[in-house]
Structures
1.
Amino acid sequence: MKKDPPRQEHEITQLLAAWREGNQAALDELYPLVYDELHRLARRYMSRERKGHTLQTTALINEAYVRLVDQRNVQWANRSHFFAISAQIMRRILIDHARRHAYAKRGGGARQVSLDETATVIHEDLAEFLRLDEALKSLAELDPRRSQVVELKYFGGLNNDEIAGVLKISKNTVIRDWNMARAWLHSQLAGSASN
Amino acid sequence: MKPERWQQISRIFNRAILLDEAARSAYVKEKCGADSDLQAEIEKLIESHQQAEGDDFIGGLAVEDVAEHFTEGKEQLALHNGQQFGNYLILDHLGTGGMGEVYLAKDSRLDRTVALKILSSDVVADKRRMQRFRQEARVASSLNQPNILTIFEFGEVDALTFIAAEFVDGETLRDYIRAKRLKLGEILDISIQMLAALDAAHEASIVHRDMKPENVMIRRRDHVVKVLDFGLAKVTEKRGNTEAVTAEEGMSEFTTAPGLIMGTVNYMSPEQTLAKRVDARSDIWSSGIIIYEMVAGTTPFRGSTSAHTIVQILEKQAPSLAQAGVPRELQRIVDKAIAKDPDERYQTAKDMLIDLRNLKSRLALDAEIERTSPAVTVEYARPAPTAEPVVTETSKKNYGLIVALIAIVASLAAVFAVNAWRSTRNQSAVTPSTPVASTPARTLTYWITVQKFKDGKAYQQPFDISGEINFEADYQIRLSIRSRQAGYLYILNEGPRNAAARPEYVVVFPSSTANNGSEFISANQLVQIPDQSWLKFDKEQGVEKLWLVFGENPLPELESIKAFANRQTRGLITDAQQNKAIDTFLAAHPAEKVRNERGDTLTTLTSSEKVLVYPIKLEHH
């Protein structure tokens, strides 16, 4: 079924180009537009989710890209930028969501508090997910590039080549950054969980 | 940490992890020299690295890690206002229930407002159950009982499964009870309509299984009651058909799936809480509980947890409604409906309905008597703080006398009413009005909308025709069909053929959502083929036939065409044997058996057979 073409597709293309040329204000305008689209798609993809069926973030972002960006006058660099910003937005969508659903209690596994209609469940994995986000923020202060590698890979679903393209570093550097960042995040989480 | 230190750590770390175990510690030691803090730091990171590798830490994708939680919660809506969803324009989000989100939407084809329910993914996950639910819901809807919500369409758009149903502008019985105290008359009106819906459904062997005030709607303008979600409960029930499990096992049903907020157990029958097979009598229990709640303001069995409630449902007697000040007859009806043993309950919704109706007419009689004795005002509903008149001290002495009088008149009236009802029922059962009514007649009406095209563009206004017509090559058509009964519709296109040529059929999809070559349609549902665009003719001239096959049940002879119902191949049936089998099937149902009444713009086809088969001939040049 043919979708209505998003009205803002031209606008988004322009904003992407402006942002690439160093206009940070363009990012502020871009953000909510992409957020809405990704959020809608993520919701739809997840409701489609079945056992044994892998959810592909890149497919999701790609769909958003195709829908949002005017394909006729777009440069390859715009695509990397789109993916970079989308990774960031996916992170925010997921964290926002996790925050709403993981009740602050930390440490325990999933516990069913009551058997009644008001049953509340604490999602330990969501709490862990939020701790990861916190650790990633600390990493960004320490080493912005390595935290970006994690963001692009884990939240954006980009592969090493794509990350290398977006960050303009070699693929080997991507791999090294990833190893270091992951080990550091793991040690941070292990530390906080035992507290 | 200083950036230089961080860079130093990462340099050594990245080298070290490339080395094997033995070389690694020597390398780290050598690089760190006397700086034991640095060494400890790096060794900790290396250990973390190994653990991270081992348990694939953040090795997947974030979206997968939170996917299962993502679909929960009300704030994540699948659709937004103003969005076009298939043929529907989303107008508003009405609410979110256990089964999914409900929207107010406009069907752009028919310009009517509908309630659109998007079923949540866990509801649609089980294909087999979904299929059964579709059938049951459609059958319930097709009963055309005014108290059963009408379903217009089942479909899937963008991988979301939806139900389009009649939109009821009103509130649920839940909100109704919460907002105000119900008067006895209202309680009876609601109960009677509720039972009438159940009676019709049970007659068609459909059990609701999830009767509760949330599933009963009261229309604002006329207070007509609509029962929703027939058959839906079955889809979500985890193991409803397991026989004879223990109470403990039964309860474990409610403790599965962490994160799942389960529905209420308050209206469940004892057999349901035990996860035993349920039948129509379980619905009777649930409606008894609903009536109890309307009277008393609360359900009879309420524990602090579901488990406690279940124990009460199984073991405790419901607190008497005597204090609620309702007529003893209503207490009796409720008590009978909520007997623990299904065999001691009303056995059919009809029996309960009769008792409720009789009570209502008895009370109408009471009201008549009341009017003629102004000294007494009788209030049957709860004697709670209310502006309504209640029985006063001074009038109480007259009350007993009048009640006795009412009782005599009423019991006479009840006997009369039951006999009257019985006699009408027997009459209609024994002497059907016409012989045709005893066999299931199939009635289809159809019309063809023609759009002319010129140079690939629509040219002039489309127009409707009945019957058959000679077409020009640049005509494109749309076929509209409406059936008076519910049933299974198959449409086959037979291409032009010469006497010697082999038959060749094409499966025509009855709707954009039908993927298997047949579609269950509800009574009076409008089917447009195709629903989005137009049917085109190829260059080949001659007579084409659009075969309409409409049966009460799925037709085993045509089930095999489903294998060819492929949109990629445009439904072309490529197997010669299959084409021949269709030929034989169609020939066995001669068109002469179908009565054909052609009006100006529509044709009505009637058959007294269980299956109506009719070719619409389309001649084109």
2.
Amino acid sequence: MSELVNTFFNLDILREVWPLLLEGLWLTLALAAVAVPLSIAIGLAIAVAQDLHSKVLRMVLVAYVDTLRAIPPLVLLIFIFFGLPFLGLRLGEFPAAVLALTLNGSSYFAEIFRAGIESVPQGQREAARSTGLTWFQSMAYVVAPQGTRNVLPDLVSNTVELFKQTSIASAVALQELLRAAQIAQGLLYNPTPLVAAAIVYFLMFWPFVRLVSRMQNKTVMHSA
Amino acid sequence: MDQIVRYFFDFPLMADYWPDILRGFLITVEMSVLTVVVGIPLGLLIAIIRLYGIKPLNALIIFYIDFFRSIPQLVLIVLAYFALPYFGLVLDPFTATVCALAVVLSAFAEEIFWAGINAVHKGQWEAGRSTGLSFTQTLAYIILPQVVRISIPPLTNRAIGISKGTTLGSVVAVPELLNVTSSIQSNVANPTALTVGALLFLALFLPFVRFTRWLEQAYAHPRS
């Protein structure tokens, strides 16, 4: 047992690598702080634009969303980071990771917002338009807020997923939390940093995972 | 334009590599299938055990699903591959990746099945029991068929999302499609291989993404 603790929860090692892990954690948070709002904004814009009743626009947007939902985010990242430089477009690790995460994340958010907007009864729009609001005003003040509320659990859940996905940036040597832990593990021949990183991720996302479960159960109760 | 064709669509350059690419593609398919075939039944099994309402066991189940929904897949794969050997448990990269992904999928699947079980009206249970069926019979013949039906759209979405995680196996050197294509890319100093990889991922997952759209339509407007 004490050997187990010494191997997996070695406090001396943890103390030694903590600053490195903390630096990694900041980078993870920075990645999410850029990629999550961007993905939400683009996803919302795509969902709203699909409501414009332009067949061509809708087809283009659905193609964008479906393509990006079908391609693994790590494939996007490798393509952006190692492929695009051949065209003279050389992005650093951080922008490349943000771009890959945003392309992937925005497509998922677009689908969630679309489902939300479609869940708002048609009468709401008609009522809004008949009071003299423009299409955009009725979308912004009447439809989108209700639609968003209807899909709140999915929005939180997808935000957590996107946040977790920042760990793929380690594949292009961006020293976020996972990468920092891997480096520390390699230096010290001890898995404590990896275990510590896993615990940090767990503590960070557990409250939100719980929250999503509660929100989903509530929705089920209401609809039953 | 010329540059784009030369760098991203130089298919003759791939002539020698098609067998490698095909092998990588098959490994990706194999991993995806194994993940789904293990993960989803395991999730269903856990949901059924949870239904028996054994308190300490249920606390454990809730911890299990929260834990595996909170930790990024890549972190679990790295842990399974680099940390478990200190434990005396050496997994090859393929097994480590599939195990990590299957466990994550089982956690998400359990949550979906559990929500489905809660969505089935209580009267169904009472009706089943009052006709003389046992608890297990009611579950098997009345409840589960309905649960599986309502669970299919979210399960499909989740299964696609987690199958795309097979690409993360490249980080621990599983020779799957992304790994193969990115090493070809660095061998021949031409990213056409990455294009081929992306197209194959698209070919593999796009039908399922389209299928979820169709499912959504079919479930929103049932014929009966």
